[in-house]
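Pilot study result, target chain (361 residues):
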Amino acid sequence: MIQWRAGSRDSCSHPTGRLSRISTHHFRGRDKLAHPLSTDSVRSSMSPPSESIGRWDSAYHSPVMVEAVLTALGGCRSVLDCTLGGGGHSAALVAAGSRVVGIDRDPEALQSALDRLAEASREGRFSAHLGNYARLDLIDELEGARFDGILLDLGISSHQIDVPERGFTFRIGAPLDMRMGEDVPWTAAELLNSLSEADLTDIFREYGDERRAGRLAREVVRRREKRPFVIADDLVDAIRAVLGAAAGPGDFARLFQAVRIAVNDELTGLAEALPALRDRLTPGGTLAVIAYHSGEDRLVKRAFREWSAVCTCPPRQPVCTCRGRALGETLTRRPIGADESEILQNPRARSAHLRLWRSAE
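Predicted structure:
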């Protein structure tokens, strides 16, 4: 069992003072949230110096908003990196003095991180485990473990996108796979070839924000009756048939992302994981979540808001029957985005949104 538990009031100490302005405020009133800082001020304090951008990149993945993550979690004695990827965030946190436990459902990502952090692993400052952050209870090594900081970087790694065989890309001839790990029961092709028109409509509308979702679902069903979906070209052609000649990479990326979210059941997993991760924090610990999709960000925002409320009873209920106390406080009024200089170097950072929450003492 991991015994990295904090006994002090502030689990994540920041000797450099980077978070000194994000102080803990007492909650006042029934449902008011304490927001110590404006998001613009937080963003300013987290802007990366130009020479640090790309420092933590690897051949496997280019992590986003590393300086912001270090600002939030760099003083934590123990950190759980829930989406290890190529180990970029973990490497930065280890270098900052934290002991890091990483998990990933992708064996390739896990091995890449272990190779990169082999020295830290030998020294007991880093360990990694194969598993899904949505099912921490299935990772025996983490039974009962609590952490001063937890990082959840949603989305997929650069490697998963760049390797056509993984099936996340809309490049010509790429297979329709999109599975993030061996625990995923079906591929994107199997999903597109088997779901009902109604279910496909929901996926394109809810996950892809597609206003012509019904038409696209009907087109998929019509085409698969003649020939099953096998490669990326099949879905691209269906999208073009509905959206017209103006359809381009932005549309393909958005709708391929919608299918990927459905294949991996990402939003359901996130909704189930958030309260479980909250309960893995030590008193005063910080949860940092980087989201890339509006649905993901909404789930995180609503969870943080509910946890930060003193009372969650209906507004006109005469007697309070809920927990009657805040579980912690939201540290970011609005999501923090990547710095423009980082976006220029890593365009995938453009859609990244960071939110922070701190557990009560």
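One observation from the pilot: The first helix runs from residue 39 to 46. A full batch analysis is planned for the follow-on phase.
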